[in-house]
Here is the input.
Amino acid sequence: MRLVFVGPPGAGKGTQAENIIFRYKPVHLSTGDMLRAARDAKTEVGLQADKYMSSGQLVPDDVIIGIISERLKNDDCKQGFLLDGFPRTIAQAEALDQMLSDAKTPLDTVLELKVPDGELRKRLAGRGRKDDAPEAVEERIRGYHTITSPLLEYYGKKGLLKTIDGLGAVTDIFERIIKVLDSCR
Ligand code: AMP
Here is the structure.
């Protein structure tokens, strides 16, 4: 199973990604987690990325595409993967398409977790991560609508997009995801 998980910050992607990993066993590829690990390890890429992350901006495409293209070459990805937080721009989606078509391993499904902005602000206010400061939150929500949401049309046209209502109890949301993923196996 090769999946992309798309949704605004605070939609609950992290929580539902854990549920998906547990049930379907794809490798979890979270670019946010990779960048935070690189930042904490004080690697050159990590320190560069931190400048963007702490203000809620996207890390440049070439940096993130380089990280993912290396990671996808790893053998563990053959069992399938869940891309969480990547792609976030059309350029990233095109680069991903190229990598996957070269490897003859196309995507199966793109899951969109949909949550209204008002609810996102409420959820992020209670989370306390470094990039959850109010200005950074607004920048990330704005960035999602302007830069990332065109991906929905991009994948919709390819017939890959499945939209999940991200409101309600975590278990109910996961039931919705299961329904979609079981039907496209
Ligand atoms: P996340 O945990 O997915 O919300 O990512 C945290 C931060 O890492 C984002 O606000 C961006 O600064 C950066 N980041 C993660 N994934 C990407 C990506 N695909 N493209 C650009 N920046 C990213």
Observations:
- Strands lie at 2-6, 27-30, 81-84, 109-114, 161-165.
